[in-house]
From TrEMBL, chain A:
Keyword Cytoplasm included in the entry's annotation: no
GO molecular function per UniProt: oxidoreductase activity, acting on paired donors, with incorporation or reduction of molecular oxygen, NAD(P)H as one donor, and incorporation of one atom of oxygen
SUPFAM superfamilies recorded: Ferritin-like
Keyword tags: Monooxygenase, Oxidoreductase
Database matches in Pfam families: Phenol_Hydrox
InterPro entries linked to this entry: Ferritin-like_SF, MP_mOase_hydro, Phenol_Hydrox, RNR-like
Lineage per the UniProt record: Bacteria, Pseudomonadati, Pseudomonadota, Betaproteobacteria, Rhodocyclales
Classification via CDD domains: AAMH_B
Superkingdom of the organism of origin: Bacteria
Entry protein name: Phenol 2-monooxygenase
TrEMBL record, chain B:
Gene3D superfamilies: Monooxygenase component MmoB/DmpM (3.90.56.10)
Keywords: Monooxygenase, Oxidoreductase
Pfam families, A to Z: MmoB_DmpM
Species classification: Bacteria, Pseudomonadati, Pseudomonadota, Betaproteobacteria, Rhodocyclales
Family membership noted in the UniProt record: Belongs to the TmoD/XamoD family.
One GO MF term: monooxygenase activity
Name of the protein described by the UniProt record: Monooxygenase component MmoB/DmpM
UniProtKB/TrEMBL annotation, chain C:
Provenance organism: Thauera linaloolentis (strain DSM 12138 / JCM 21573 / CCUG 41526 / CIP 105981 / IAM 15112 / NBRC 102519 / 47Lol)
YHS domain mapped to chain residues: 411-453
SUPFAM superfamilies documented for this protein: Ferritin-like (SSF47240)
Protein name, per record: Methane/phenol/toluene hydroxylase
Alphabetized GO MF terms: monooxygenase activity
The keyword Oxidoreductase is assigned to this record: yes
Keywords, sorted A to Z: Monooxygenase, Oxidoreductase
Length: 331, 89, 517
């Protein structure tokens, strides 16, 4: 039976789920972000302890040193639930595809000055391994963190990092060949330039505190790497030397960083604003990992910047400090 | 002999795909339901990109099947040109 | 500069290989066992992660593209369904109880799957399985959310699902699905993959989704049908992952075979016990039936599973032994389950009813060997009693199986007149089981299963009353206190459909829609 109901108005019994109404303070229509996020993670009466971590519950607030009265105090300013996330990325990948096509079809890769192409291959292609580490680390934060508001964006971030690693691979294939990927991997494994950064990435892979891992990866490392590599080196320095096609190939990363840092900032801000104790712990992590990341990125920056690397890296660190101060954590 | 199958949503996008499967697997049995089409074959079922492209007159990426796939059974082997479902005898 | 011409285009397999495993490296600043600490203790031996065969080779750009298209379609349909009060087009309001069961019993499991695959993906040192698991983790949060979003509109008009997260963690029968997934996520990463990736996704998921989704379609619930189909398109990817995982583990070392066989036996049974809820839904709760539980089991397990286990025989894997008992139970499972919920409808978040004459005839036709003999007389009696005003709601709490947590309602294999009881002693305590299989699972890992949060035990221990409850006051009503702890509204969320607000509202709203009042 098909009924045309367009003229019929019936009064709902309630406007959202009770848990949402309790959190937003009233029974009123809730957003899809709210209904898809709040209290999604189980909270009580777990049946068994993890055999892989018997000292903790399945989801356990004590895996981190950060204390939150309510882990749903975190909010993703992008309000990403899966659908909103997938649509946003599909749009960006559409642009990226068009950019790759443009560069490829017009043979723009061949017009790059040799030294620029060399620099790009040496600098960008090994970074796909760094992004791979970012994938693993965000997967860990998602798996071992507490509360969907905090963990949900991390699976998106993890898969974004995989996407970035794959875009960087395509850059390598477009400007070079499979051999360029192999050469970059050898550099990543053996060249002094990369060992500080590789050590940083491997050291983060053994962190057990999910919030510290979040800081080491998303705040400190990416907070310095993206501005240095994509904004300073590619968009400014290389573009001025005829490297604009490269900026087209990395537009995804530039846009992605501008978008995701708002979420990272909001997360830092919420954690630090909770208590002085949190602020001290988060501040300590940020300072420690920032210093290590800056030192590890310096030789990498030299690939493109030569002697200016120190000065420009210091600038990026200054901007980073200002950004953290704005998020409520002066470091 | 064991049955392999694939089930797709019934819609405009899958119509030529199903036609292509029938062409390439003459022994396949098509079971049409209102919302879903299930195609059974003995031991092996192949979906070929070229056959679909001939029917729709445009390039087709076999990964587009993802959008309308409901379920399948058997081992899977996928390349750019074909997707094969099979049981090992 | 002639490099462009010389470049050869990579095929799908090579391309995918450089896009995934090419990204990985062998660490030297940290030890493998510190980066991947959870990989050794289960006893599974992996010699070469590179032997992993990727089933679907989706890179992230393609993933985003196709998934966004699915999401666009899905939400357009959900919006249209809601805007047109599509819920009034379902066959009758009894159908909505399947939606309640789904959102409180199944959707929260999708969320656990999301976290579990994030954990398993991170745990595996092999880049191939890691990427596949993480992609599945991302899919699973999609499923959890699209289900909540699709069902959100039902919650606005019908009772029983208004606090489903809270209910999932507490209500007695919901501990059955909850403990199933808790069991999987607390197992090691390899067992998790065999449990969920293989046994659940590959062997059993068709039994959950295809009947549920076609049930929704048959009963006019376009919103649910659409999220179901949309989720299934991801399931196809998950199923192939599950099968690849099994083949990979088995091919790596013959010593893995007995471990995997034990897991397959365990998880087929665990999964089947959870599907009791689906069996009951198919045979009793869908006003318009698609197929019987028994038929679904025959098509999706006996035929399909037969082909699958024939394929795996080369490794020495055999059909799980429990399949024999399941075959004996298929004539009884749904009837015994529905009888139990009819008994305990006071403490459930959905409504129950007795099948009418037409439905009894359908059941008798589908179950010629069991229905008329064992179940029709029971229903006839209950119906008669209800008509006389003696509707009996059972308030005595049942004994639960320590493993599957279902009340001890199942009968002896081959004798539907005798309840099946098994027990075991462990460290001075006695534990009870519904079957040999649940007992065996307990005995293999008693340290794990003694931890079970059994709702009945918890109620008797006083752990399921709202904070501040004093059970010693005169006139204390334990059931009322438990319902408050569950946040169930007595008289609205529970008991018989016939007297329910859902039934009244649906009739009135549909009346407004079809008549000129």
């Amino acid at each position: 039976m098909q009924i045309d109901l367009r003229t019929v108005t019936i009064k709902p019994l309630r406007h959202t789920f009770d848990n949402i109404a309790r959190r937003i303070g009233a029974d009123k229509p809730a957003s899809r972000y709210q209904e898809g996020t709040l209290d999604m993670q189980q909270e009580a009466n777990y049946h068994y302890r993890p055999t892989w971590d018997p000292d903790h519950l399945i989801y356990d607030r004590d895996r981190t040193a950060i204390r939150m009265a309510d882990w749903y105090g975190f909010k993703d300013p992008r309000q990403f639930y899966y659908g909103a996330y997938a649509l946003a990325r599909a749009k960006q990948q559409d642009t990226a595809e068009a950019n790759f096509d443009f560069v490829e079809n017009r043979g723009l890769a061949a017009t790059l000055p040799d030294d620029i192409r060399d620099t790009v291959l040496k600098l960008l292609v090994p970074l796909r391994h760094v992004a791979w580490g970012g994938n693993m680390n965000n997967a860990a934060v998602c798996a071992y963190g507490y509360g969907t508001a905090f963990t949900q964006p991390c699976i998106y971030q993890a898969m974004d990092q995989l996407g970035i690693a794959q875009y960087l691979t395509r850059v390598g294939l477009l400007l070079g060949d499979v051999e360029a990927l192999d050469a970059a991997k050898r550099a990543w494994m053996e060249d002094d330039t990369w060992q500080g950064l590789r050590r940083y990435v491997e050291d983060t892979m053994v962190l057990r505190d999910p919030v510290e891992l979040f800081v080491a990866q998303n705040v400190a490392l990416d907070g310095l790497l993206y501005p240095l590599v994509y904004e300073t080196i590619i968009d400014d320095v290389l573009s001025a030397k005829g490297g604009t096609p490269v900026a087209m190939l990395t537009q995804f990363m530039t846009d992605w960083y501008a978008e995701t840092r708002r979420w990272v900032d909001a997360t830092v801000k919420t954690a630090a604003a909770e208590s002085d104790a949190n602020k001290a712990v988060v501040g300590g992590w940020i300072a420690q990992w920032r210093d290590r990341a800056a030192a590890a990125l310096l030789p990498v920056g030299r690939i493109a910047l030569g002697a200016r690397a120190d000065e420009l890296t210091a600038e990026v660190v200054q901007q980073f400090n200002a950004r953290m101060a704005k998020a409520g954590v002066p470091v | 002999m064991s049955t392999v199958f694939i089930a797709l949503q019934t819609n405009e996008e899958t119509r030529p795909v199903i036609e292509a499967i029938v062409q390439d697997n003459p022994d396949a049995v098509v079971n049409e339901q209102p919302a879903m089409v299930k195609i059974d074959a003995q031991d092996r079922l192949v979906i070929r990109r070229e056959t679909i492209e001939e029917l729709i007159g445009r390039p087709f990426d076999l990964q587009e099947l993802q959008i309308n796939l409901i379920t399948m059974t058997g081992n899977l082997d996928q390349t750019d040109d074909e997707m094969v479902l099979y049981w090992r005898a | 500069m002639d490099m462009q011409a010389a470049k050869k285009k990579l095929g799908l397999k090579e391309r995918y290989a450089v896009m995934t495993r090419g990204l990985d490296w062998t660490p030297s600043y940290q030890k493998m066992e510190d980066i991947y600490p959870y990989i050794a203790y289960e006893g599974i031996k992996i010699h070469d992660w590179d032997k992993w065969e990727d089933p679907f080779r989706l890179t992230m750009d393609a993933y985003w593209k196709y998934q966004a298209e699915k999401e666009r379609k899905l939400y357009a349909i959900i919006d249209a369904f809601n805007q047109n009060n599509g819920h009034l087009n379902v066959t009758d309001a009894r159908y909505i109880n399947t939606v309640k069961l789904f959102v409180s019993g199944i959707s929260p499991l999708e969320y656990v799957a999301h976290r579990g695959f994030a954990h398993a993906g991170r745990a595996f040192p092999g880049p191939g399985p890691r990427v596949a698991c993480l992609m599945q983790s991302l899919d699973e949060i999609r499923h959890a959310q699209t289900q909540v979003h699709a069902i959100s509109n039902y919650n606005k008009y019908y009772n029983g699902m208004h606090d489903f997260h809270h209910a999932h963690d507490r209500v007695w029968f919901l501990s059955v699905p909850k403990s199933f997934f808790d069991d999987a996520i607390t197992a090691g990463p390899f067992e998790f993959m065999v449990a969920i990736g293989f046994s659940f996704e590959y062997v059993l998921t068709n039994l959950l989704f295809v009947p549920f989704v076609s049930g929704a379609a048959y009963n006019g619930d376009m919103g649910t049908m659409t999220f179901g189909f949309s989720a299934q398109s991801d399931e196809a990817r998950h199923m192939t992952l599950g099968l690849e995982v099994i083949k990979f583990i088995l091919e790596q070392d013959p010593a893995n075979v007995p471990i995997v066989q034990r897991w397959i036996d365990k998880w087929t049974w665990r999964g089947y016990r959870v599907l009791t809820l689906v069996a009951m839904m198919m045979d009793y709760m869908l006003p318009k039936r698609t197929m019987s539980w028994k038929e679904a089991w025959e098509v999706y397990f006996e035929e399909n599973g037969g082909a699958l286990f024939k394929d795996l025989a080369r490794y020495g894997i055999t059909m799980p032994k429990c399949a024999e008992q399941i075959a004996l139970e298929k004539d009884h499972l749904s009837h015994q389950a529905w009888s139990t919920f009819y008994n305990y409808a006071m403490a459930a978040n959905f409504h129950t009813w007795m099948p009418d004459e037409d439905e009894m005839a359908w059941l008798a036709g589908k179950y010629p060997d069991s229905f008329d003999k064992h179940y029709r007389p029971r229903y006839a009696y209950w119906r008669e009693q209800a008509a006389k005003g003696n509707r009996f709601y059972n308030k005595t709490l049942p004994m639960l199986c320590q493993t599957c947590q279902i009340p001890m309602i199942f009968t002896e294999p081959g004798d539907p007149t005798k309840i099946c009881y098994r027990e075991a002693d462990y460290k001075g305590d006695k534990y009870h089981f519904c079957s040999d299989h649940c007992k065996k699972i307990f005995e293999d890992e008693p340290e794990k299963y003694v931890q079970a949060w059994l709702p009945v035990h918890q109620i008797y221990q006083g752990n399921c009353f709202p904070e501040g409850t004093d059970p010693s006051v005169e006139g204390f009503d334990p059931l009322a206190a438990v319902l408050r702890y569950y946040k169930l509204e007595h008289g609205r969320d529970n008991m018989d459909f016939d007297a329910s607000e859902d039934k009244r509202n649906f009739a009135e709203w549909r009346g407004q829609a079809t008549r000129n009042i």
